Each structure stands twice: as structure tokens, then as C-alpha cells.
Amino acid sequence: MTRPVLRYKLKSIQLLELLMERIGTGESVNIRELADRAGVPHGTIGNLLTGEQGGVYSDAAERIAAAIGVDLLILWIPVERAASSVPRPRLSVPA
Q1: Looking at the predicted structure, is the pLDDT value of residue 16 above 60?
Q2: What is the C-alpha separation between 92 and 45, in angstroms, rounded?
Q3: Does residue 86 sit within a domain?
Q4: Residue 77 has pLDDT above 80, yes or no
Q5: Count of domains in the chain?
């Protein structure tokens, strides 16, 4: 059985910018440095900062939050579950 994949929406572009100015270690990071630390393409961080991309899948959200040094839900809002391998029961409505 596969776990459902969550998508997370960035709470605020300004919050991400602010957190990048001073990550958990006290230093600042730019787009490429954060991307390298989180193991995501630098375009992902850039697109989040411009608003072109509003969210990411759970694995990327977790890595970005960890690279900044904050808990996941400080930066992200869970928005949906992608299709899982567990079939949902069909509801029948009496006619």
C-alpha cells in the first residue's frame, strides 16, 4: 500500500524571503544555495518566490523547510492528497 502524496502550498512569499534572510543557522541563503541545501531545482525556489509556482509535493516541502530550519507547517499549508493506490468505496444513492 502506497502512502498518499500530499501537496503543500507556500503560506507567503514574503515569509519565505524573510526566512531566507536568516535561516536556522543565522546565515542568509540565496535561491541557489537554498535549492542546493534542499535538493530541489533552483527554478523551484525562484518560481515560488515570484508566485509562478504556488506549491510543491511533500518531499520537496519537507526538504525546503529543513534547509531553512523551520517546522514544515511554519512555511507550508497542506492543500490536497494526490491519488493513492487505495481505492475509495463508491457510494450508491437509492433512487
Answers
A1: yes
A2: 44
A3: no
A4: yes
A5: 1
> Which phi and psi angles does 12 have, rounded to 5°?
-160, 130
Instruction: Determine how many CB atoms are found less than 10 A away from the CB of residue 20.
Output: 18
CA distance 27 to 37: 13
Are the beta carbons of 75 and 17 closer than 8 angstroms? no
Cα 80 from Cα 77, distance rounded (Å): 10
pLDDT at res. 12: 96
Look at residue 94 and tell me if it is in a domain.
Answer: no
Confidence class of residue 6 from pLDDT cuts 50, 70 and 90?
confident
Q: Name which of 6, 5, 11 is nearest 54 in CA terms.
A: 11
Q: Which three cell numbers stand for residue 48?
A: 515560488
